[in-house]
Amino acid sequence: MFELLLYWELVASRMLMCDHLHPPDPYNQIVEAQLRETGFYYVSQIGVIKGQSAMINALIERWRPETHTFHFPVGECTVTLEDVAVILGLPTNGLPVTGPTMSSFEALEAECLHQFGIAPAKMNMYVKCHIMLFGKVLFADKSGAGVHWKFLPLLRNFGQIIQFSWGSACLAHLYRSLCRATRVDCKEMDGPLTLLVSWAWNRLPFLAPIPGNPRVFPVANR
Hints:
Aminotransferase-like plant mobile domain-containing protein; two-stranded antiparallel sheet; 9 helices; MAIN-like; mainly alpha
């Protein structure tokens, strides 16, 4: 009965965009070592998850902002920090990912000059990150191709990146995105949709297109 109910929700739900990335070319040893040092290596290996709008919409219909849980006929459940660690391979212990947004162009220009040595175009208030894990997997905007530059200050000291609990920030971002998506005027959803889709396939395996390999880590690469 639960499968049938969710199937009809998939058919009747409103459509949202779900764009994701292509897997990167193999890294050389230096780049791989640096990614491992930051704690983002496993995320960098996550490949394509094509549009799963219907399933995402059905999950949104079941999401309750008051409790941050999905309400299914069999009970409540939600995405946890353990899921983030297993699905994306992100660190979940450490310092909180927080800080001022500094939305003025002057602050953005100063930050880019400090880190990259060049200033952004004045009409672009987003930094198009070349690191695919930041641009499309963890904190993507609704275009699926950009990420807000407010994270840049946390990347100033390369050796300290691993000290932050990126997994906690990613989970909080997913919760906020789901809460926003429940609004009647919302047409698109941002956030870590790879995490959401992989979680659904893992926890509700009858939705998965093909059986996953239980030995693969992170789970998103199954």
